[in-house]
Amino acid sequence: MVPVAAAPPQDLEAYCRAINPDPPAQVRCVGAEKASQERLARAQGAIDPQAWGRCQSGSASWADMEACIAQPTPPAAASAPTPPGGTAPAGSPSTTILGPQPGATPTAPEPERPSRPISEEEADKQVRDVLQRTGEPAARCTKKQYGTGWVTVCE
Question: Running DSSP on this structure, what letter comes out for residue 44?
Answer without folding.
Answer: G
